[in-house]
Amino acid sequence: MTTGPHLPHRLQPLLAPRSIALVGASDNPGRIGGMPLDLLRHFAFAGAVYPVNPKYEEVFGYRCYPDIESLPEACDLVVLAIAAPEVTAMLERCHARGIPAAIVYAAGFAEAAGEGLTLQRTLEAFAQRSGMVVAGPNCMGFANLNLHAYTAFASVFKNVPLQTGPGRASIVTQSGNVCSAVFALARRLGVPVSHFINTGNEACVEFSEYLEYLAQDDATECVVGYVEQLRNGPRFIDAALAFARKRKPLILYKAGETDKGSEAVRSHTSALAGDLALYKAAFEQLNVIRGTDFAQMADLAYLSGFRARQGGPRVAIVTMSGALGAILADKFIGAGLEVPTLSDDLQRTLREGIPDYGMVSNPVDVTGNVVNSPQFVRTILGALAQSDQVDTVVVYAPGYLLDRMAEPLVEVCGQWNKLVVAIDTGAATCRDQLAQAGVPVFDDIGRATQALAPFCQWLARHEAVARWAALRQAQAVESGTPPVLPAALNEHATKLLLAGYGVPSLQGLPARDADEAVHAAGQLGYPVALKILSADIAHKTEVGGVRLNVADAQALRRHCEDMLANVQRHSPAARIDGFLVQPMASGGVAELIAGITHDPVFGPALTVGLGGVLTELYRDASHRLLPVDAAMVQTMLRELRAWPLLDGFRGRPLADVAGACEGIAALSRAQAALGPQVREIEINPLQVRAQGQGAFALDALVVVQD
Amino acid sequence: MTTGPHLPHRLQPLLAPRSIALVGASDNPGRIGGMPLDLLRHFAFAGAVYPVNPKYEEVFGYRCYPDIESLPEACDLVVLAIAAPEVTAMLERCHARGIPAAIVYAAGFAEAAGEGLTLQRTLEAFAQRSGMVVAGPNCMGFANLNLHAYTAFASVFKNVPLQTGPGRASIVTQSGNVCSAVFALARRLGVPVSHFINTGNEACVEFSEYLEYLAQDDATECVVGYVEQLRNGPRFIDAALAFARKRKPLILYKAGETDKGSEAVRSHTSALAGDLALYKAAFEQLNVIRGTDFAQMADLAYLSGFRARQGGPRVAIVTMSGALGAILADKFIGAGLEVPTLSDDLQRTLREGIPDYGMVSNPVDVTGNVVNSPQFVRTILGALAQSDQVDTVVVYAPGYLLDRMAEPLVEVCGQWNKLVVAIDTGAATCRDQLAQAGVPVFDDIGRATQALAPFCQWLARHEAVARWAALRQAQAVESGTPPVLPAALNEHATKLLLAGYGVPSLQGLPARDADEAVHAAGQLGYPVALKILSADIAHKTEVGGVRLNVADAQALRRHCEDMLANVQRHSPAARIDGFLVQPMASGGVAELIAGITHDPVFGPALTVGLGGVLTELYRDASHRLLPVDAAMVQTMLRELRAWPLLDGFRGRPLADVAGACEGIAALSRAQAALGPQVREIEINPLQVRAQGQGAFALDALVVVQD
Asked: How many cross-chain Cβ pairs, A to B, lie less than 8 Å apart?
């Protein structure tokens, strides 16, 4: 889908138009047919502007045309400020006139259901057929602030500080209100904006295509977005990886964080939101920063201007107050950053200028005395900037205290590329000077924390994303023709199938009847586990299809008989292949559950958790988009709050984590090889034994696509 | 400790001085001996001011005295701007002069350790002996803004908007920097401040005594505070309950939220922070609002001005944008509020004026159209204000859209007392008008959420706090002379002791030897559990002192022999009383752990959790200060994330929650009756059987104070 580096992207006429027509033009700047014309005039768009309306000769100083056919040229972009039922017919005419791109403001399409849905289907079919690039409908329009190309009916542009330098942050949202709100906040922070994009119903151009464009747009150094529904998961993944590759922050607020939020979103866009836990995991995996607040998103756009500096989650805190140091440490650690205790050597260096009652362990409390000695501040900051014990330095000093430190701060930041951040809750005069020198300045501890924590994590994730992108690339090359699976597999067949991809299991012996079961048990040795064997029964326990600790042949025969009766009573339609006889699986340190599901947005994904009922209650699970390798699985296991159970908690033996990781990673290979015919794969439980003794699927399930 | 309503509180001369002396006066407004005098002059303190310094005749227009003895009167308050070693001697002279209260600025006391610690002990001894009220040392001083009585060396007072009306919010902090920072934020929000109090080292007057004063201070309608260490838990509880009784919000930031934060705090004040989980629980129990951010604390002080309105956690959201509704719902639910779906009836009422594409279920999306019809806005808001389905109404409308709704908002708030909150991310001109009418206005969604959530919860907790205060009062009356306990009790004696207070347990039969054990088992019936019986062994399993499922007499004899050998090998010094033979406890739905510990700050507290290793990993426990009753225990159990296990999760039987609650509440009675000689009581596990079948301590432990 991505165009080559030398071909213009197909969205170019939409997002960087050289000439703009507006159908339904008005001479009233308060109406949607007038507002964009007023903005184009006000901000002096350099290209041609063609208002279209037979009622006027001229509007806002632009010559007005009676119809689209009478324009002197095929302009790049037409904006339709007309009612929904007229839209597609007008687009046909614009297309015939040779106009490649359009924006449709009108509401009353899919979001209104009923007749609107039909109108949207017609519009989609036209766009598909014609290849015309149609944005919206039900959107507020766009602005390319570097070109002064305003096609949005939004009053916000005149109400914020005027932008002088080139814009570098782009805003893309599925809601016009959110677009305006985030834009206003970013501008008030002084962040120069390049693109303002409200995508609306996305009938023809969807969210990720805008991202694709912006990833390769030189005027976009970061994107701040709001999304209710991603309609094209694979393209989103590609776009996010392009952002990651170019080290441009992609900051997205995903609506539907809670059930109630989802409900509101569904009613709003008739959208089915993907599973939230997987969204979070996917964002982290793709190094997409999760927006949590408009102010935080604006702050992140501000921080993006400092993305070339080296930073990360291990923070050194420098303050003049023990209390503030404690508060900052609380906040940072609470937000997922680290405040490591500094080495004795480094503490000794810091101690040389800090009085006894100050602190040097981190937080570093230089005490109020130190502002009298800029040379000493330089030494402290220099030592921290050079140290490999911390990734980021945060200096908290209110007002004039920060001013006293400005000079050494600027000097140190000129000398070393480490990220140094200042927080000033007073009214320091050095703020601009610091920002110029590469030091972002915040005026609130809470806001600093909320933006800094995800930004530092973003800085630290570049390598992991690149690694995953390479793994994904490699798998795309590898995948061959998958074997064709039957509609359903019984447990024995499932374990054999998965074994071929390297998933170890306690396979056991299949038996057609009680005699064969007794024979099998004789080979395995008692006690054994007895299970019903049927491709039609996914949950054996619920139908009385599992007996553990069967002690001898007599008991085994009795169980075979009872089990068959039970199962036939519970599931009369199930085809029974017989029994599976397994050795009793003792010796496990822990039992995991590992499963692959198919997310409607992101495609195949892996979930790993500790087995059992409590894990479900505590929602202690880790998710990843596929593919994964063993190293990624290990990271997933370490993310579990139950991880200590695998790691020698309270004198337990260490579990065979390596074995578990290999076994789970093999599921990813199985999914890749079997392809979309497989809807789900689950191992439950995966018994993890003590270190060196492996991990084995005690049960396994493959659900084949209907 | 509390003085009667007609006697002035002993802190009155400190916090509402009619006359102030300053020893160590300076004529330089930049020095600590000059700054307060400059402020007193600048803000025109009406009382007498006596600078003391033989160097000057006059400073800041005040006559200066050579020494404290030459003052024309015994003033209310003396401020000492002199070095630490001179402090106590000077206090002696001030005391001799008849001055009842003093503030000590000097650092170099306990916080500096070594010699400083000695200085502080001397100071404490003097204050104790003399009865003089001494604030600090190592403090920045105070300000009573209503009296213009400035005794703080803080530059912040001149740098914030001038306060015209009477102050109503007081600020009390253990850190001077935090005091200034919170004061500045509150003033910038327009919150009028009454007291500015920095408590410093609290050698003689500690944090909770200030709270005690402020609870009864008419000029204080809320307190915003910062605390690293509470030195007097019982007085804090009394003070917090006084705030609750008067419905004044008490908002406290507790430093040491994370281990790193605690470390910084310990170094800062040599303070041992109490257990954080218990702090959180105690704050909630006492209806103290936890501050999480200076901005949030200032916002809560602002909200406190609206505390007379009726509100609570069930919020109706009214917006003009589905997206914003979804975002607000996400935020509110994430912060612990509820966004209930409205009844069909109420939805029908709302639907009458809302277009089809708007939403009426909650969030309510009135759509942009509605601002043209103020009458309709009035109907919607009126319907929500009257409804008992929601406690609080939040209206989000940016800029002019909020202005359009201002009139109906004011009208509705005049008619009904329900809390209605507005959020305006634009620049509405109606903000002051709304605030006057009782509608707080926020300009950021995140900040609104962070303050509103705890405030709504505070509004809803009045009843629970009153109930607990009554329970505590009743218990204080009841408690008689406790029985004297031996230094240690074995399991059987422990269970008997607790049974006396109503704690049910599987008591079993004690046996001195194997013969008696076999006899006991014969009475109980096999299988039985066998345990070692010794007051010296708290953790029986770890010394091989427990055998479950003993099937017959032969096995029992063997186990008795083995067990005795094991235990004697592991704990040769333990006195063995014999064995405890118990019936095997089958039939439990869940096992809980319930324990009473003695918190160094708050005293006896109850912890309840699900038994087992995972609960510890997930830190799934609930805490309360004692006393508790069965209803409170039930609330605690419902707070557990594992609660569904007791409540029929996935087809399990319902547990006997009532029985469990009675049993656990009995622990509270036991603690009350046994008094401080008991350090810990623990039931682990408490086996909870199916509904109607009770709950039983399978094991129990009482640790007697050394």
From this structure: 222
